[in-house]
Design goal:
Blueprint (H helix, E strand, L loop, with lengths): L2 H12 L4 H12 L5 E2 L10 E3 L4 E6 L19 H24 L3 E6 L8 H21 L13 H5 L16
Parallel strand pairs: 3-4
Antiparallel strand pairs: 1-2, 2-3
Bound molecules: zinc ion.
The site of zinc ion has 7 residues, from loops.
């Protein structure tokens, strides 16, 4: 096994909790978004799902999902045809799953690994912020809030709770 092959196997094993995905999850959490992970019942098993906003987010590794970017300048040279075909198949499958989700009324967001490199991360998250704000606005202004789920419906009221409402008056002079 060459070093490169071993590296690829490792990235495969690490699977779901890859770092780029964590960057997005942490950011979402801080923004007050709540989500579920790797929802198997949806096409393509989106990495992050926000049912309340009918939004599925895929955080795609550039290698396996065949992203045409810097990260993939050095494609494996042995068996090039095999890999090219594999990447093409992965891309097709991704596109198919995203189309299925969109047809079912889901917003689909794809964030690429390379967009989360330290240099590009801030801009990417800003862009994500704009996209999600638009989705939230659109859904809040839609009559009936068709997609609000009962299990996630009280998040907003929880967030609006005043935290320091019952601070005891004697707290200034603790004995
Ligand atoms: Zn990329």
């Amino acid at each position: 096994m060459t070093r490169e092959q071993r590296h690829r196997c490792m990235s495969r094993i690490r699977g779901r909790d890859t770092k780029p995905e964590l960057v997005v999850r942490r950011w979402l959490w801080h923004q007050g978004f709540r989500y579920r992970l790797c929802v198997k019942s949806l096409p393509g098993r989106p990495d992050i799902v926000m049912r309340k906003w009918r939004t599925a987010i895929f955080v795609n590794g550039c290698f396996w999902h065949g992203h045409e970017c810097e990260n993939n300048r050095q494609r494996p040279s042995t068996n090039a045809a095999f890999w090219q075909e594999k990447f093409a198949r992965n891309r097709e499958r991704d596109a198919r799953n995203q189309a299925l989700l969109q047809a079912a009324g889901w917003h689909v967001i794809v964030v690429w690994e390379c967009q989360l490199s330290p240099k590009r991360r801030e801009a990417t998250l800003r862009e994500l912020d704009v996209t999600l704000s638009r989705i939230v606005l659109q859904q809040n202004s839609a009559p009936g809030k068709r997609y609000a789920m009962p299990d996630e419906g009280n998040e907003a009221s929880l967030a609006a709770e005043p935290a320091a409402a019952y601070r005891p008056a004697t707290a200034k002079n603790p004995k």
